[in-house]
Design a protein that fits this description.
With about 270 residues, the protein is of the alpha+beta class. The protein contains four helices and 16 strands. The strands form six sheets. The protein has a four-stranded antiparallel beta sheet with strand order 3-2-4-5. Strands 1-12-13 form a three-stranded antiparallel beta sheet. About 35% of the residues are buried.
């Protein structure tokens, strides 16, 4: 398994919010056309703007990007079928255009946006830097190609903390060493909310977030330097390791219980 967690921007079309000044576009993307939402007929810079504007009230709904048929040129206001440029004035709507996703982004080259046929969405980071894992159901960085733990449709799940969709997330998604996925910010908040071993476990399966050889060595030292009272000195309990799933009988100690197979202290009492 990987010795570190990997973060990916798993969002459609880039997803990281655009914050610099521009003549056209929104906080999500820089482009020169507004899309006409097929669900309500209103125009928005992007689907995220639409979803934000319609997230409250009884008419709350989300827009399906592949259903977009029309756009409005922001140079001449011509309403036309979705395409790379305006049919009236010739304005190019974005340096990057994907007709499959109905996606425009003037920063596409800088973001290295590419379309993945298997994901059926556009992603950032450069096609050469990613591979598509059919089991996990998503593009992952090449650096974990041979060492990540596959989990069936790992990216097609809701974040275990905020319960929002991960596959088309507009914020960084972290791939844990156990193969489960979670928003990077949600994981950070989770770690800050818990203390001790609970803060270093996957919230779904309790496997350690990292390989903690240094931490286990420090616990070895503390256990050695903290003898238990005589009445507990020969007390044994059964534990199961959250990392390797080995069950064993070990001496009870107030500081923790070490797995006899993999030396992890990420264990639980049976």
């Amino acid at each position: 398994m990987a010795s570190k967690m990997i973060s990916v921007c798993a969002s459609f079309g880039g997803g990281c919010e655009y914050t610099s000044h521009q003549s056209f576009g929104c906080r999500h993307y820089r482009r020169r056309c507004r899309i006409v939402a097929p669900c309500c007929g209103e125009s928005f810079w992007c689907r995220h703007c639409h979803n934000d504007a319609t997230s409250d009230g009884k008419n709350s709904h989300e827009m399906e990007r592949t259903d977009v048929k029309e756009v409005i040129c922001q140079r001449c206001q011509n309403r036309q079928s979705a395409s790379a440029q305006c049919t009236a004035c010739g304005e190019v709507f974005g340096s990057y255009f994907c007709e499959l996703c109905n996606f425009w982004d003037d920063d596409g080259a800088a973001k290295k946006v590419f379309h993945c046929d298997k994901c059926k969405i556009c992603r950032i980071g450069g096609r050469e830097n990613f591979f598509h894992c059919d089991t996990c159901g998503s593009c992952y960085p090449n650096e974990i190609r041979n060492e990540h733990t596959c989990v069936e449709n790992a990216m097609h799940q809701a974040c275990p903390v905020c319960l929002q969709d991960l596959f088309q997330s507009t914020t960084q998604v972290t791939i844990l060493r156990c193969g489960h996925t979670i928003h990077q910010e949600c994981l950070r908040g989770l770690q800050q909310s818990f203390a001790g071993l609970q803060s270093i476990r996957c919230p779904l399966c309790s496997v350690s977030l990292y390989k903690y050889e240094d931490l286990w060595a420090e616990l070895d030292r503390q256990v050695e330097e903290t003898p238990m009272p005589k009445e507990y000195a020969n007390t044994h309990i059964r534990i199961t390791c959250n990392d390797c799933q080995e069950t064993s009988a070990v001496k009870f100690h107030i500081l923790g219980h070490k797995c006899q197979r993999c030396s992890s202290y990420n264990t639980r009492r049976e």
